[in-house]
Recover the amino acids of this structure.
């Protein structure tokens, strides 16, 4: 295991977490995609891209379980770089198929990419506020069989996942947007401008 690589990945995630907590505390985190958070996510994604170019995907053998999880978190946050995020998904899918990273990492990144592209998710891991102010899973493909797919990815049931996500939102102070329709319109415009949607 490369301890320097492991620590570099963990440090980036810790930096982003500290920034997220500070922005959540003053309320600015939940108003669009905060510019400071965006810049941090993009910088970390570029650092991860350099690592991947020189060493391949950081898996549990090369970066330890926590380092590999940190690499996955950085990929999850790379929403401003669609091509890179899709490339990360391919690498994580391969690593998960080979047992080099947990299967749930590929599942969550699959759902995130599909959501950003405007497609239904597969595993039901991505949530957002609806017009009634409830935190709900985004649309799920073949929803009747989602728990079977979640089990294959080592995820809890949809009911348990929903309960956990709502508790996370409560603990972090995340609340429904004041103007749901405007937030949706802003997101659609951003997704098109970034290149997620045409």
């Amino acid at each position: 295991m490369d301890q320097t690589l492991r620590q570099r990945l963990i440090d980036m995630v810790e930096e982003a977490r500290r920034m997220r907590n500070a922005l959540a505390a003053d309320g600015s985190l939940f108003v669009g995609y905060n510019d400071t958070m965006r810049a941090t996510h993009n910088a970390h994604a570029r650092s991860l891209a350099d690592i991947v170019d020189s060493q391949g995907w950081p898996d549990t053998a090369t970066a330890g379980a926590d380092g590999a999880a940190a690499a996955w978190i950085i990929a999850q946050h790379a929403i401003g770089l669609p091509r890179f995020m899709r490339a990360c998904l391919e690498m994580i899918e391969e690593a998960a198929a080979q047992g080099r990273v947990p299967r749930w990492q590929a599942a969550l990144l699959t759902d995130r990419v599909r959501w950003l592209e405007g497609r239904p998710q597969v595993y039901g891991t991505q949530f957002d506020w609806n017009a009634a102010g409830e935190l709900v899973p985004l649309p799920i493909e073949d929803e009747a069989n989602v728990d079977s797919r979640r089990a294959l990815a080592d995820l809890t049931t949809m009911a348990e996942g929903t309960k956990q996500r709502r508790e996370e939102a409560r603990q972090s102070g995340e609340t429904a947007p004041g103007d749901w329709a405007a937030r949706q319109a802003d997101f659609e415009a951003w997704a098109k401008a970034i290149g997620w949607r045409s």
User: Anything to note?
Assistant: Residues 1-101 form one domain. The longest strand covers residues 127-129. The chain has a mean pLDDT of 95.
